[in-house]
Design goal:
242 residues; alpha+beta; Alpha-Beta Plaits; Aminopeptidase; 2 domains; seven-stranded mixed sheet; four-stranded mixed sheet; 11 strands; 24% strand; globular
Amino acid sequence: MKNVVWLKSDDPFPEEKYWQGWVVAYGGNISPSRLIDAYHKGIFPWYSEGEPIRWCSPDPRAVLPTHSLHIPQRLWREWKNKSFRITADTSFKEVVRACATTPRKHEDGTWITTEIQENYIQLHELGYAHSIECWKEKTLVGGLYGVHLGPLFVGESMFHHVSNASKIAFIALCGFSLMKGIKLIDCQVFSEHLERFGVFAVPRKKYLNWLKTNIPDNLPTEKWQLDTDKIYEKIHLLKKKN
């Protein structure tokens, strides 16, 4: 960690020229105001329990313009069957905790620490963080959460307890985004799994420039409410175009 910037509680984030690869800085705090400032700058926290806070900005960055969503054929059949009941912002705490505790292949432990959970729940209560939930009857079986910055949604994590539930939540997020004027979904780190949905990697510099041009100072804070009929209509129109 030679030459890496260590932040005191109120220190600003360092300029990009001081970033060490993906790592922007260590330390500071994870207050809601610090988190919102970080997202404005293309930064987010990523560390494990017991480690110092590590602030990251991947290069390249994984993004999806909402109008470019691709839905694999098998998943399209699942979507059309309306196999899940879909809601938003009804169970944010439960989604975050499920993301933290649901086992994942090839991963040990979680970066969604108790501190992370507490502060993102505060972000939700302030109206900046949101969740999409998938249900089987009254059981929460999948979902995702992230931060809304006007024309941008930064996805933080997703989970599923039933096959395809998190993927259906992601499609619903895209449909809602098309309705709300959210132009870009930031998936943070590129993977072949995400590529199937149309996600692609862009240089960090390009992403940071987009943020500077497009993200307003005053961010929306209203609670999300889904009109699922309109979301299905939006997704069907998008599928025809793509």
